[in-house]
Amino acid sequence: MRNTTLCLIITIILFIGSIGTAHGQMNRMFARAVIVDGDTIPFYTLKEIQISASSCLLSAKEIKQNQRLIRNVKKMLPYAQLARKELDKLERECQNLPSKKRKELIKKTEKEMLAQYTDELKNFTTSQGLVLLKLVDRETSKTSYVIVKDLRGKLRAGFYQTFAKVFGYNLKEEFDPKNNKKDDLINRICLMIEAGKL
Questions:
Q1: Looking at residues 177-185, what average pLDDT do you find?
Q2: What's the CA gap between 82 and 15, in Å, rounded?
Q3: Per the domain annotation, does 115 fall within a domain?
Q4: In 3D, which of 71, 21, 95 has the Cα closest to residue 189?
């Protein structure tokens, strides 16, 4: 029962996370641009990050003490990155579609993702699901609750949050490596994985 619930929550995060953010950003216009040699180049403000030599690397002791967390992050990071990629894909495909066609594309994408990932998602543990919630926020810069709320509305997001809480999940929990030691550890693990050092 717990694995089935986890499967449902992760499917919601992967699928709704992607399309919810896409829906929220689909009609945005660039507010800023820079003109260079007559070409207009979009200007994006990115979230500030701080990197120092000590914050990027895990010590040998930390690696030894956190083998389970490292294993979970290695397993869940590709799924969080998949959510971000699906977001980008749906943004491109839905950008100029009328509402009816967009809904059809979203339903088709949902069906394909469920067929492809349901069996895998059923095997995730609770701790892996908790890590995935953090990683989705890390990759998309939105909590799973906000993503669901943007797409399905506050009532549906509240329902999913209540349902998740029964099984020990919090869709509102933010990824905050600056103020949360575990999130900082997860972030450093991700940085080392992405750099090919783990």
A1: 93
A2: 10
A3: yes
A4: 71
